Amino acid sequence: MLEALHLKNVGPMPETEMEFAPRLNLLTGDNGLGKSFLLDVAWWALTRRWPHDLNSNLTSGYPARPSDVKKAASIDFKLTSKTKSVFYQSKYVPRDESWLGKAGRPWNPGLVIYAHADGGFSVWDPARNYWKKKGSIDIQERLPGYVFSAKEVWNGLEVDIDGKPTLVCNGLLSDWSAWIREKGETAKRMEEILGNLSAQGEHLRVGPLKRLSINDARDIPSIHTAYSAGVPILHASSGVRRMVGLAYMLLWSWNEHARAAEQLGEKRTSQVVMLFDEIESHLHPLWQRSILKSVLHISESLHAKATVQLIAATHSPLILASAEPLFDANKDAWFDLDLEKGHGEPVVTLRRRDFVRRGDVSNWLTSEAFDLKSARSLEAEAAIEQARALLRRTQPPPTLKEAKAVDAELRKAALSDIDPFWVRWGNFMEELRGLK
Question: Which molecular-function annotation in GO is an example for this chain (predicted)?
Fold first, then answer.
């Protein structure tokens, strides 16, 4: 698992330090402050490969570059390998446009799965991607990793091996159809995972194989919905396709690892690291409330004898609210990125914050995670700020005319009839009328 990152002159901050928790790590912050960047660096630290270098079809995962190429830049990290805790330092070499560190056989971080925000996935398997030995010599002949664009998750991944295009993954449509036809253990496991990923009351169930048209010979898996006994998965909603893609990649990566380990006569990995960018992507709030717990549960059940570490970036207050029942400060952490505007230039900061249970999800919107002044519309927030300014003013004393103008703004902003602010404001208006 990943224990720590220390970056200098890389990314939006001059220097970044993170010490990860062993189980759950949540990452919040505004757009553009570096959440996806930190996940890319975490993947690189674990695998020593940038996702985009392995698959140019990706729209993310590009190699990191120094903020100022004239200054020294470094990426230091600490991780738990197969045998011990290791520290590694890599420095950027401008002439080579690459990050260079200690040569030789790298570490073995276990199985690493990276779910990208756009539906793509990256997988590093210690059985299939780690260096192999010939006698006492380390040889790097295996594929450096499996990186899928969103389309390749569904249709299969083809890579160049020894100058020949080779299909290394059949893809969701082909594999899942085959599992359904075989009616074996893998088909049952896929349906179990989908059930665990489903929102409460919206259990995803597998339907019959379908054809899209008379000219398309593919068998397409389908799912049962509230309105149909079998909707082809390609016609399902973005959120459902996101869950199906996740279920498939979790199952595929573990099955292929188990098969490769057995074929090599090796033990299965004892460590699994999952990186998740925008874990709530495309999901309705019903699904957002359960996705975090579901991913942890599925990962731990698939890898029953392995330790599982999850590092997830999110923009959703529901994700943080859903973490409240399971968050344990001894093995979980919350990191928050902020743009601080002081007297000089704005500065991006990263803090490990105390995780406080806030109850109502709207309280998360006004927390350090999202920094909103209120959980209301912009118009309502502005009108309330105007009203509060009038409430606080003592000199000159507020007039009834001023209060009526602000009252009109509050009503124009469509402030809810049950908003608690009306109680305070109503008392204020009555006092002014009494003074008239």
Answer: ATP binding
Tokens describing residue 99: 């990050």
3-state secondary structure of 315: coil
| Run of H or E including 100 | strand 98-100
Q: Name the DSSP letter for residue 63.
A: P
CA distance 12 to 37: 9
H or E element at residue 193: helix 185-197
Task: Give the pair of three-digit tokens for residue 151.
Answer: 């389309």
The 10s digit of each residue's pLDDT in 74-132 is 999 999 987 789 999 999 999 999 999 876 667 889 999 999 999 999 999 999 998 65
Contact between residue 384 and residue 410 where contact means Cβ atoms under 8 Å apart: yes
Q: Which fold would CATH assign to domain 2-365?
A: Rossmann fold (3.40.50)
pTM for this entry? 0.91
Helices (H), 223-284: 238-264
Assign 3-class secondary structure to 149-182.
CHHHHHHCEEEEECCEEEEEECCHHHHHHHHHHH
What's the rounded Cα separation, in Å, for the pair 212 and 210? Answer: 7
C-alpha to C-alpha distance for 246 and 274, rounded to whole angstroms: 11
Element (H, E) at 401: helix 400-412
How many secondary structure helices (H) and strands (E) does the chain include?
A: 12, 20
Sequence length of the chain is: 436
User: One-letter amino acid identity for 311?
Assistant: I
Q: Enumerate residues 6+ apart whose C-beta is below 8 A from 175.
A: 169, 248, 252
Instruction: Answer whether 115's CB lies under 8 Å from 277's CB.
Output: yes
CA–CA–CA angle 129, 6, 320 (5° rounding): 85
What is the spatial distance between Cα 379 and Cα 412, in angstroms, rounded to a whole number? 9
Which sequence spans correspond to the domains of the chain? 2-365, 378-435
CA pair distance 318, 259, nearest whole angstrom = 37
Beta bridge pairs of residue 15: 8
Rg (the chain; Cα; Å): 26
**pLDDT 10s digits, 12-44:** 999 999 999 999 999 999 999 999 999 999 999
Phi, psi of 300 (to 5 degrees): -70, -30
Token digits of residue 43: 């993947």
Question: Do the beta carbons of residue 26 and residue 327 sit within 8 Å?
Answer: no
